[in-house]
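User: Sequence recovery, please. Input:
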């Protein structure tokens, strides 16, 4: 049986991925650490080949060279994290695996996306401290400038910072200091994006391209506390002005046509204002993370494994049928709370009654979790379902911590 190596998968999708791959006649190999999942998810790994989690091509390459029998079984390699597409492409080329198109790897870099559709992104510059001095030519002199600093390759708002550069500040010094104090490994050696800060709603357009046909599944509208996304509504097309929706769709179509992107899903994130929208993260080649696979499945009355099968196999050219979805206007609204705590704590476990909604533990039991607002790594768990049900049931969830039982925080 042909086997598919999957590197990079979140704690929601892991529940469905094996059924998704096997129902298409393939066998999954998962690059994950099962110890990082809650006990309720452990059954997923029974009878499945698992290898260590890798995010570095040299480390994965060395592992595969040392396990040639495993290599002989692998037909394809893929990922559900767009920042891992460069690694996936490199490994596929080295070992002769089938893989998603090479353009997926290029589109994972924010500066490449910005260069293709400059009219649809905020003012931005790409820089690396390793290159020496730099300038940000679009800053307005003599006034305060708010900018967002983020790694060019990354997700989950990790190392993302909102900087307020005062009128009398030296922008280079402020930005350099923020990079060096970002807390990530070797920050001076990677590319960073400095982007004009835009105020508005965080929305994303979910959809896919199959053989040149672009399908928009609908808009997600998210709530944030600081740099933590805490709630997602899907579909949310009725909550966004039609002219702004049109601007969002035009931006995605332009990116697709100019990049040559085909046969893959996308999760394009925008800041939407009352009159326009700015693309801030393209996320081409993958479905939205967190609970979005469950929300799309609920809205369109599909099994999450069916949606995930399409996401995985479409870029690998292993999907045998055309994807068909009903009109988004016929979808029932869904809601997911990606909840947190309001203080740093060690998570011990969850206390849950019988729920109609879908609950997924996200935090690793025994780990120190940062408070809401820091990044998406502050997530404790997710409660997903039809909007009116989730809004009622979130109050029944309790999280046991080293500071006692706590209620979810999501606003």
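Assistant: Recovered sequence (411 residues):
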């Amino acid at each position: 049986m042909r086997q598919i190596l999957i590197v990079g998968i979140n704690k929601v999708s892991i529940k469905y991925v094996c059924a998704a791959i096997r129902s298409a006649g393939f066998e999954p190999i998962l690059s994950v650490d099962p110890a990082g999942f809650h006990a309720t998810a452990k059954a997923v790994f029974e009878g499945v080949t698992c290898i260590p989690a890798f995010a570095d091509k040299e480390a994965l390459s060395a592992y595969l060279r040392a396990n040639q029998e495993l290599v002989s079984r692998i037909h394809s390699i893929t990922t559900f994290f767009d920042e891992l597409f460069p690694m996936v492409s490199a490994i596929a080329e080295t070992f002769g695996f089938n893989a998603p198109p090479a353009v997926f790897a290029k589109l994972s870099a924010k500066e490449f996306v910005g260069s293709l559709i400059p009219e649809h992104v905020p003012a931005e510059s790409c820089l690396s401290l390793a290159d020496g001095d730099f300038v940000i030519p679009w800053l307005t002199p003599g006034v305060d400038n708010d900018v967002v600093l983020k790694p060019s390759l990354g997700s989950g708002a990790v190392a993302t910072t909102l900087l307020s550069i005062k009128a009398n500040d030296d922008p280079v010094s402020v930005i350099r200091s923020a990079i060096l104090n970002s807390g990530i490994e070797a920050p001076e050696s990677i590319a960073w994006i400095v982007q004009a800060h835009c105020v508005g709603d965080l929305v994303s357009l979910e959809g896919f391209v199959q053989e040149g046909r672009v399908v928009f599944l609908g808009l997600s509208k998210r709530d944030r506390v600081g740099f933590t996304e805490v709630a997602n509504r899907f579909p949310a097309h009725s909550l966004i002005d039609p002219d702004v929706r049109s601007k969002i769709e035009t931006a995605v179509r332009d990116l697709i046509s100019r990049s040559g992107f085909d046969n893959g899903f996308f999760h394009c994130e925008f800041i939407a204002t009352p009159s326009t929208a700015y693309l801030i993260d393209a996320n081409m080649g993958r479905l939205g993370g967190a609970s979005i696979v469950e929300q799309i499945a609920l809205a369109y009355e599909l099994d999450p494994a069916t949606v995930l099968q399409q996401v995985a196999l479409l870029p690998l050219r292993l999907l045998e049928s055309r994807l068909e979805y009903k009109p988004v206007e016929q979808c029932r609204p869904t809601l997911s709370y990606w909840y947190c705590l309001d203080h740093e704590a060690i998570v011990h476990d969850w206390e849950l009654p019988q729920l109609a909604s879908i609950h997924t533990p996200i935090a690793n039991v025994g780990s120190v979790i940062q408070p809401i607002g820091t990044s998406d790594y502050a997530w404790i768990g997710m409660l997903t379902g039809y909007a009116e049900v989730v809004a009622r049931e979130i109050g029944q969830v309790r999280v046991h911590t080293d500071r006692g039982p706590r209620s979810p925080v999501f606003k």
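The longest strand covers residues 213-225.
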